[in-house]
Amino acid sequence: MIKWGIMALGTIAEKFAYTLQQKGEGRLYAVASRSLEKAEAFASKYGDVKYFGSYEELCNCKEVDAIYISTPNNMHFENCRQALEAGKHVLCEKPFTTNTQQAKELYSLAEEKGLFIMEALWIYHLPLLKKAAELVAKGEIGDVNYIRADYGFTAEGARRERKFLSSLGGGALLDVGVYNLAFAKMIYRKDPVNIKTDRILNEYGTDSFGTLLADYGDNKFAALTSAIGIKMPTEGVIYGTKGKIYFPNYQKAEYMKITYNDGTEKEYNSPFEINGFEYQIEEAEKCILSHLQESPNYPHQESIGIMQSLEDIRKLWGMKFEFE
Ligand SMILES: NC(=O)c1ccc[n+]([C@@H]2O[C@H](COP(=O)([O-])OP(=O)(O)OC[C@H]3O[C@@H](n4cnc5c(N)ncnc54)[C@H](OP(=O)(O)O)[C@@H]3O)[C@@H](O)[C@H]2O)c1
Hints:
The strands form 2 sheets. The chain has an 8-stranded mixed β-sheet, with helices on one face. α4 runs parallel beside α5 (100-113) and α6 packs across α8. The protein is built from 10 helices and 14 strands. The chain has 324 residues and is of the alpha/beta class. The site of NADP nicotinamide-adenine-dinucleotide phosphate has 21 residues, from α1.
């Protein structure tokens, strides 16, 4: 069994810890926060879990096999490096880093050290999205020429500030636009060759809204829109010459419907066992136990391609983070 450590105990760390707990006692071995009191309170909710008041102590904990990193975006590079240098396998929250060069450096370092590392872009491991990709590859809905995906939510007060701060690598694109790009990439199996895009910047100098028309070559396009401040259902539609696949919520893909051009329909239901996070955890554990350094389902090159798209889009917008 893999013994997990969690670095940074914010919102998403709770979901990760809960998922580990549901998967079976003992998986969550230790947690670390910048505050010892916070770490102690967090650990107490999950049974017999060690806790530390610094990220460094977690990295140096001999019993921990793998670390899940859930710090703000701007810290992922340094925290992944710290964990890898300490000999830990890593699962790091999306967006993996804030630029492509950093992603490449981390993947090289993991390779050098013989360690597993994966970006926690969990939708890549959802059974129904994998099923849709498989059906499309088999030509079930003919040639796919167009994909549409939207993702927008609202955030207020301190949460809104945390989501937008340029110093933390904020903005809707890196927060949720990354899922739209991943959804399209899972179907087209490639990155865009050309992107037309526009955005609305907020008072922090990051994007609260971004919309793009991505050209994947071979007459394949995607219209992808992300926002923080506008509620948009996380819909995804894959349009082919023989029909379409509709996801009312592609990010939490438990249901999809194929509508063929003659009007007939086929529905697919695939309820999550826990909350959807279990699939990326299972994938990471399987890879670590098999001594793999990357997931065959979400290889490093795939993540680097997405990082490059994020960087290209920000360049087109003229949007730089404070630390760049
Ligand atoms: N996969 C998903 O569904 C999903 C969902 C939401 C977010 N995420 C990703 O997960 C990461 C964390 O997001 P979150 O929503 O959990 O954020 P959050 O609630 O703000 O938590 C981030 C944690 O990072 C630590 N931290 C260290 N330096 C910090 C600083 N300068 N400012 C704020 N926090 C700092 C804090 O933990 P300590 O105080 O314990 O040190 C904080 O609780 C982001 O990269 C985000 O993109 C993924």
